[in-house]
């Protein structure tokens, strides 16, 4: 391949009137780097995300950022539950924009998986607000593996969390984010409501598929209203629990149409995380789920982002050519190489400034 017009990964991507320079996304990945445990952006966050923007990603999504203190996945996570956290987020947005990428942020609530980073042992009954965790909130009093038994949310509590999502989204817009992504994946609160494996309520928020999708849709509508008409609304979903009785690809495909009607602009498709399961992990293993959702929303202008062990340039390019997704998110490989998009462009034959715009400061390190 010899020109950018031949490379799908380098094609611009337009969402709600905003255009990303290419179709490569940095997905949200927690850095667990808020040492003061106040949810405020640190120098580490600025350097980490700015380097991926400079490295060529078209859209950079900042890690899971909690809408309430007890919704953090660990005490060292970012937050947007307070106006005092906006200034640091604005600094982060400015750094991402300076690198040439659209800036997005994932907002979420950890539900029954809140409280401790994934590498720490979970302490049954720990509700202290320390590194061992705090009171966990969930749709039902069903623990996740070694975590403490969560408190079942009442309807008033559900309403407060919906309001917290909207408030965090407004702060994200105030900070200057182009994209607000709702975290509806990986076994956290929104996913917990969707799945019958974690939601055994008997009220209007449990039981039928329609009822289990009520809370997610309430969050989407509240966030859509909060961010207005100029900000892109994205949602990340686990399309399958990979477990009997859980969320399925077919169910998620149908749900995606409802999300589009509710105002979602982008669908970011992942899987798993809600219960222990035999996940068929392998190169591109989640792309068939993205393709299933893409077929379901065909006819709309809503793009679908695919993710999951996509670690080679040709693999990403082929997924776009085959129509499995409209954009590709690259996570773990981007942790190893901040300049992965520029390297991938070179791997696929791009050789000029117009095709793969390396920062002028790094020209001496590019191809001859």
Structural class: alpha/beta
Cα distance spanning the termini: 17 Å
The average pLDDT is 93
Strand order of the largest sheet: 3-4-5-8-9-10-11-12
Number of domains: 1
CATH architecture: Alpha-Beta Barrel
Keywords: Flavoprotein, FMN, NADP, Oxidoreductase
Domain NADH:flavin oxidoreductase/NADH oxidase N-terminal: 9-345
GO molecular function: FMN binding; NADP binding; NADPH dehydrogenase activity
Protein name: NADH:flavin oxidoreductase/NADH oxidase
Short recap of the structure:
The chain is 31% helix and 14% strand. The chain is α/β, with parallel strands linked by helices and 368 residues long.
Structural features:
single chain, 368 residues, alpha/beta, TIM Barrel, two-stranded antiparallel ribbon, 11 helices, 12 strands
Outline the secondary-structure elements:
Layout: E1 13-15, E2 18-20, E3 24-26, H1 43-54, E4 59-66, H2 86-98, E5 102-108, E6 137-138, E7 151-152, H3 155-175, E8 179-184, H4 189-194, H5 209-212, H6 214-227, E9 232-238, H7 249-261, E10 266-270, H8 287-296, E11 304-307, H9 313-321, E12 327-329, H10 332-336, H11 340-347
Parallel strand pairs: 3-4, 3-12, 4-5, 5-8, 6-7, 8-9, 9-10, 10-11, 11-12
Antiparallel strand pairs: 1-2
Describe this protein's structure.
- This protein is an alpha/beta fold and 368 residues long.
- 31% of the residues lie in helices and 14% in strands.
- The protein has helices spanning 43-54, 86-98, 155-175, 189-194, 209-212, 214-227, 249-261, 287-296, 313-321, 332-336, 340-347, and strands spanning 13-15, 18-20, 24-26, 59-66, 102-108, 137-138, 151-152, 179-184, 232-238, 266-270, 304-307, 327-329.
- Strands 3-4-5-8-9-10-11-12 form an eight-stranded parallel barrel, surrounded by seven helices. Strands 1-2 form a two-stranded antiparallel ribbon.
- Helix 1 packs parallel to helix 2.
- The longest helix has 21 residues, at 155-175.
- 52% of the residues are buried.
- Residues 124-131 have low confidence and may be disordered.
């Amino acid at each position: 391949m010899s020109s950018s017009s031949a490379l799908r990964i380098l094609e611009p991507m337009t969402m709600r009137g905003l255009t990303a320079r290419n179709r490569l996304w940095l997905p949200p990945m927690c850095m667990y780097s808020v040492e003061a445990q106040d949810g405020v952006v640190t120098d580490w966050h600025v350097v980490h995300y700015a380097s991926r923007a400079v490295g060529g990603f078209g859209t950079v999504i900042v890690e899971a950022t909690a809408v309430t203190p007890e919704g953090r996945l660990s005490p060292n996570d970012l937050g947007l539950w307070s106006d005092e956290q906006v200034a640091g987020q604005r600094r982060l947005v400015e750094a991402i924009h300076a690198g040439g990428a659209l800036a997005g942020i994932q907002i979420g609530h950890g539900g029954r998986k809140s409280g401790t980073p994934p590498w720490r042992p979970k302490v049954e009954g720990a509700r202290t607000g320390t590194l061992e965790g705090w009171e966990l909130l969930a749709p039902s009093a069903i623990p996740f593996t070694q975590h403490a038994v969560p408190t079942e949310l009442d309807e008033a509590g559900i309403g407060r969390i919906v309001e917290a999502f909207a408030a965090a989204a407004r702060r994200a817009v105030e900070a200057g984010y182009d994209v607000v992504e709702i975290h509806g994946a990986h076994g956290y609160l929104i996913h917990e409501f969707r799945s019958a494996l974690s939601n055994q309520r008997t009220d209007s928020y449990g039981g039928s598929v329609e009822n289990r999708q009520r809370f997610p849709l309430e969050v989407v509508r509240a966030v859509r209203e909060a961010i207005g008409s100029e900000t892109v609304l994205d949602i990340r979903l686990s399309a399958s629990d990979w477990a009997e009785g859980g969320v399925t690809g077919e169910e998620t495909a149908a749900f995606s149409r409802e999300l589009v009607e509710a105002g979602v602009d982008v669908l970011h498709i992942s899987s798993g995380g809600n219960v222990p399961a035999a996940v068929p992990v392998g190169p591109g293993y989640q792309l068939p789920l993205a393709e299933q959702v893409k077929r379901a929303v065909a006819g709309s202008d809503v793009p679908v982002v695919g993710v999951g062990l996509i670690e080679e340039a040709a693999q990403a390019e082929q997924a776009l050519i085959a129509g499995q997704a409209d954009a590709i998110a690259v996570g773990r490989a981007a942790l190893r190489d901040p300049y992965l998009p520029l390297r991938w462009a070179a791997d696929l034959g791009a050789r000029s400034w117009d095709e793969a715009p390396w920062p002028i400061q790094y020209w001496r390190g590019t191809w001859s």
